[in-house]
Amino acid sequence: MTDRNFLKAMRIPTSTDPLRVLVSACLTGITCGYDGSANGEYPSVLKLLNYDTVRLVKFCPEEFSFGSPREMCDLHGGTGDDVLDGKARMLSESGIDWSEGIVRAAEKMAEVARREDVELCVMMDISAACGSQVIYNGNRFSENKQYQIGAGVAAAKLMREGFKVISQRDHASLEILYSKLDPMHEMNEKAIDWHEVEWYKNYFKTV
Ligand code: SF4
């Protein structure tokens, strides 16, 4: 669940002092996805490329440790937080234990976030590395694929260090962000965040 009050309280950036935002690199069109694609296009985030009031810091934790293209990977036995604590594992599709590599990548991403003094992170949800709210619980290609509430390994590390993370599906939060980047932005008052979507509420029984 995103912290919209944090976003509302965020400063108004300018072109000479842009907002520093860390993004999952694939969300900006970089082809760092497991299959060498950009994981589809999300206009909700690609729009960030149009503003000079934001400085994007792009990073792909999986590419950092495993290169692109690479095998698909998922979390087994827990969330990204559990992987950071050594209680769960990230496995590649063929069953190779990638936990150590992804923890190293998460540490690198947090190091980049600190060095660049980022003020917000916008990350690809559902990813075992970048997800901030929903991730798979085990192999996503299994017949009985399951989702769980939780963060991927890199997003969990960033949140532990106090960075605020929103996802590409947090449309209400992104509306607030765009209103900060552009004084002419017309707010879509009907926009909702990921945890308010019917699928999310039904699947996780949060209604
Ligand atoms: S690890 Fe993150 S940045 Fe890299 S492809 Fe996956 S979601 Fe995108």
Structure, described:
The protein has 8 helices and 8 strands, in the order αβαβαβαβαβββαβαα. The protein is of the alpha/beta class. The strands form 3 sheets. The chain has a 4-stranded parallel beta sheet, with helices on both faces. A two-stranded antiparallel sheet has the order 3-4. Helix 2 links the parallel strand 1 and strand 2. The radius of gyration is 16 Å and the shape is globular. The two termini are 14 Å apart. The mean pLDDT is 97. The structure holds iron/sulfur cluster.
Jot down its keywords.
207 residues, alpha/beta, 4-stranded parallel beta sheet, two-stranded antiparallel ribbon, 8 helices, globular, binds iron/sulfur cluster
**H/I helix tally:** 8
Proportion of residues in helical segments: 25-40%
* Small molecules held by this entry: iron/sulfur cluster
Provide the residue-averaged pLDDT. 97
Large-scale geometry: globular
Q: Name the strands of the widest sheet in spatial order.
A: 2-1-5-8
Strand content: 15-25%
- Provide the succession of SSEs: HEHEHEHEHEEEHEHH
Largest sheet: 4 strands, parallel
Based on CA atoms alone, the radius of gyration comes out at: 16 Å
**Low-confidence segments:** none
Class from helix and strand fractions? alpha/beta
Which quaternary structure do these chains form? single chain
End-to-end Cα distance, whole Å, is 14 Å
DSSP strand count: 8
Question: Topology, please?
Answer:
Elements: H1 4-8, E1 19-24, H2 43-46, E2 54-59, H3 61-66, E3 73-76, H4 80-84, E4 89-92, H5 99-115, E5 120-123, E6 134-136, E7 147-149, H6 153-160, E8 165-167, H7 171-181, H8 198-203
Parallel strand pairs: 1-2, 1-5, 5-8
Antiparallel strand pairs: 3-4, 6-7
Helix pairs in contact: 5-6
Bound molecules: iron/sulfur cluster.
Residues 24-26, 32-33, 39, 60-63, 124, 127, 129-130 line the site of iron/sulfur cluster.
